[in-house]
Amino acid sequence: MKTIIIFACVLGAVIVQGQGQEESSDYTESLCDCGESTYQPVCGDDGQTYSSVCEAKCSEQEPQCEGECPCPESPSDLPTRIQKVCPFYIRKVCGDNGNTFDNECQAENNGVSVQCEGECPCGENAEEEQEDCPFCCTSSSVECQGKRVDCSRCDRT
């Protein structure tokens, strides 16, 4: 879905480039619906701060750096990559840093590789920890004997 919207933004920018200013603005706005994306500011090449990469692209600006304007002057201060616009669905994954992310895209944006699908911890140890737990929790996760346990797999009968 987001790929289509970003493509529409780029396509809209190409189509309206030769048209009058008033038409261009209205037409681009109608093609660019970035939705209620998470605030991940970028600094556009016009020196303005945009709330996301999508907002910058829809304003026909190229992101120069992550964060609010102005961009850092030192090349060592520049981020190594611009973060992707992530989808809004939740398909939890466990990162190799032991943290749970809403989806794979958010893990990647944090520079973390996915270790397994679902909440942390991964693997057989998680199931063993649940078997050792003397109760079933009512929330999706709980501390049990000092370990974080995913109770979504717990039999609540």
Automatic annotation (TrEMBL):
<dbReference type="InterPro" id="IPR002350">
    <property type="entry name" value="Kazal_dom"/>
</dbReference>
<protein>
    <recommendedName>
        <fullName>Kazal-like domain-containing protein</fullName>
    </recommendedName>
</protein>
<feature type="domain" description="Kazal-like">
    <location>
        <begin position="86"/>
        <end position="121"/>
    </location>
</feature>
<feature type="signal peptide">
    <location>
        <begin position="1"/>
        <end position="20"/>
    </location>
</feature>
<feature type="domain" description="Kazal-like">
    <location>
        <begin position="18"/>
        <end position="70"/>
    </location>
</feature>
<dbReference type="Pfam" id="PF00050">
    <property type="entry name" value="Kazal_1"/>
</dbReference>
<dbReference type="Pfam" id="PF07648">
    <property type="entry name" value="Kazal_2"/>
</dbReference>
<keyword id="KW-0732">Signal</keyword>
<dbReference type="InterPro" id="IPR036058">
    <property type="entry name" value="Kazal_dom_sf"/>
</dbReference>
